[in-house]
Specification:
The chain is mostly helical. The chain has helices spanning 29-32, 35-66, 75-78, 98-115, 118-122, 127-151, 172-201. Helix 4 (98-115) runs antiparallel to helix 7. Its main location: secreted.
Length: 203
């Protein structure tokens, strides 16, 4: 079936698991039957799933290399790091609008593209995986921007903190923990984006 039953800078652990039933009033009937829009959704569902897999692979590298594997063991350290979450509240609000959700996914992907650069220094032996992730994040962001333009959806820009250059970490350990939370939060961001795209594909 279509829907079986059963996320910048850096990210503070605000989980994005809002109730997905609120999406059911989405005013997208005029888009849901559009064949090109459906093709776009299904193509980018697969693309998002691929990126999630590559993030999970990089998470395993961080776990194996630095023995940083469980969020609950690092919560106290995280409080000192100023990690912020790329927002996606427009993708699960009661006033869901496609353009607002797409805009936040696009902007979040751009933020994570920038923050992934920290891994090039941290894990020089895994440059290819990091660069692939950056390229995929940039391409998915561009896909969404292009689809918004094709559908005539208004481009919405939400204020975000300019991450600027990568921060100077007070220690190598803080650099490693910050990187761990970048990935944990990127994975949550992608899961939320995936659920939003899947819901749109099932309207």
């Amino acid at each position: 079936s279509c829907c079986p039953t059963g996320v910048l800078a850096l990210l503070l652990g605000v989980t994005l698991w809002a109730p997905w039933w609120v999406l059911h009033g989405a005013p997208l009937a005029e888009l849901s039957g559009d064949q090109d829009f459906q093709l776009f959704l299904h193509k980018n569902l697969e693309f998002t799933r691929k990126i999630k897999g590559d993030v999970a692979m990089l998470q395993r590298v961080v776990c194996d290399t630095f023995q940083l594997c469980k969020e609950e063991e690092l919560l106290l350290v995280r409080q000192d790091l100023g990690i912020v979450q790329a927002p996606l509240e427009q993708c699960h609000s009661r006033t869901f609008q496609a353009e607002a959700c797409f805009s936040q996914i696009r902007d979040g992907l751009r933020a994570y593209h920038g923050s992934l650069a920290t891994f090039l220094e941290l894990l020089p032996g895994h440059t290819s995986l990091v660069e692939t992730l950056q390229l995929d994040a940039a391409n998915l962001s561009s896909n969404i921007q292009q689809q918004m333009e094709d559908l005539g959806l208004a481009t919405v820009t939400y204020p975000t903190e300019d991450p600027g250059p990568l921060p100077a970490f007070s220690s190598g350990f803080h650099h490693q923990v910050s990187s761990f939370f970048i990935l944990a939060n990127f994975q949550r961001f992608l899961e939320t984006a995936y659920r939003a795209l899947r819901h749109l594909a099932c309207l």
